[in-house]
Amino acid sequence: MSDQPVILVPLDGMADALPALSVAKVFSGLEHAAVRILHVAEQASAAEELAPRLGLAAEDLRGASLETRSGEPAAAILAAAGDLLARLIVLCTHTAPGSPAGKVGGTALSVLRGASCPVILVNPAQPLQDWRLRKVLLPHEGTSAASDAVKPGVELARRADADLLVLLVAAPGPASPQARGSLTSPFYLDQPQHEWPAWAGEFMERLACICPLSDLRVRLLLARGSPASEILRVAREESVDLIILTWKGIWAPERAETLKAVVREAACPAMVVRVRAGGGSNSPRNSGAAGAPRAAPAAQ
């Protein structure tokens, strides 16, 4: 097996799956990784037969290789990711004709749940042929676990020479118990002059202890309200190209509401980084990657 890292792009032959390839090729350059296009079918096909079936032109295949596997799609994708030690999986949220806008299909959800590397979810309705990584939005909840997941955002911004926007959304309500090492948002959200300068300085110092920031263009933003709404608002107003979201791995009713809403409604791709129990994350480099306000919780 080659030592070159791999970015896995599952394609099912639907036109709506192709935007994922445009995004993957940008990450291929940033990660110095090969793009492996995977098609899951009942029978394997030769590359010269498979490419037209997937809607791929010769230019699409430049710097990429094709592979077919048989079996249930999500299981085959996860098996390929494991065999290839994929650094990233890039796929569209859904590809079936007539799917509701923003729907996360069964295959994408199963891959998200089972992947040991970050998954980049792409909205197939967005025109991404000329997609570039110029602005990265990193929502942060103020906890040490979320800080560990900052690393992929910082690394990507550095390699892409992109702006890094770190956003903390404070949700109104009783303060929730804070884990050791957490940094809550300033108390006076409507009067930032009271605490904001000192708080912002401490927050950035903590992030700099995790990964160097001095060579990056970093902005720290503070918002108040619904985490999903504020993330989407900032992404829209700042013309963000990628949102990085941490996730505890639970996709169930009334859980991961922020993640679900952002993936459903964002115009740009979202990278989902799994936060492991006890700390750590599956970042690309780790993968083979009515009272005081409370900080918005990580998507669970």
Q: What layout of secondary structure does this protein have?
A:
Blueprint: E1 6-10, H1 19-31, E2 34-40, H2 47-53, E3 64-69, H3 73-84, E4 88-92, H4 106-114, E5 119-122, E6 135-139, H5 144-148, H6 150-160, E7 163-171, H7 196-210, E8 217-224, H8 227-237, E9 242-247, H9 257-265, E10 270-274, E11 294-295
Parallel strand pairs: 1-2, 1-4, 2-3, 4-5, 6-7, 6-9, 7-8, 9-10
Antiparallel strand pairs: 5-10, 7-11
Helix pairs in contact: 3-4, 8-9
Task: Describe the protein in words.
- The chain is of the alpha/beta class.
- It has 2 domains: 6-122, 3-Layer(aba) Sandwich (Rossmann fold), CATH 3.40.50; 135-295, HUPs (Rossmann fold).
- It is 31% helix and 21% strand.
- The chain has helices at residues 19-31, 47-53, 73-84, 106-114, 144-148, 150-160, 196-210, 227-237, 257-265, and strands spanning 6-10, 34-40, 64-69, 88-92, 119-122, 135-139, 163-171, 217-224, 242-247, 270-274, 294-295.
- The protein is globular and about 65 Å long.
- Residues 289-298 have low confidence and may be disordered.
